[in-house]
Amino acid sequence: MSGPALKHVDSHKAIHEAALNEAIEMTNFLDKLVNDNHTKKALELAYVIVEQWETRTLRHAEAEEEGLYKELVEEKPELNEDIVALTRDHNLLRIIINDIKSILKNDGINDEVVQKFQSLIIVDELHNQKEMEVLPEH
Q: Closest Cα partner for 63 from 135, 125, 134, 1?
């Protein structure tokens, strides 16, 4: 069963916006550090951003998948296709995070890492828009 914050559109949207805005701010700062060749600080920040995505967005995604999404499909089976797509978005976020972690471990910080963080933001923005279309049905 999902918690009450996930079921209410306004509170659910606020959860998304807070995590995404934080990720955007940190990614913009990371980009500046990389461009200014502050490699050590940039690498440290990259690991902080990974942790932020894992603890805020991906943990939230797990809660949605384990509760809210199942409940939505049970109540409205016609939402199944949308839920499959939303779950795929979560999987894309997980794949990109794992790619970032691999690059950081093997190559350190570089422009590719910044681009992957930016791609996380884009996928999450699109995901959040779609989810808000589906949630009012709940």
A: 1
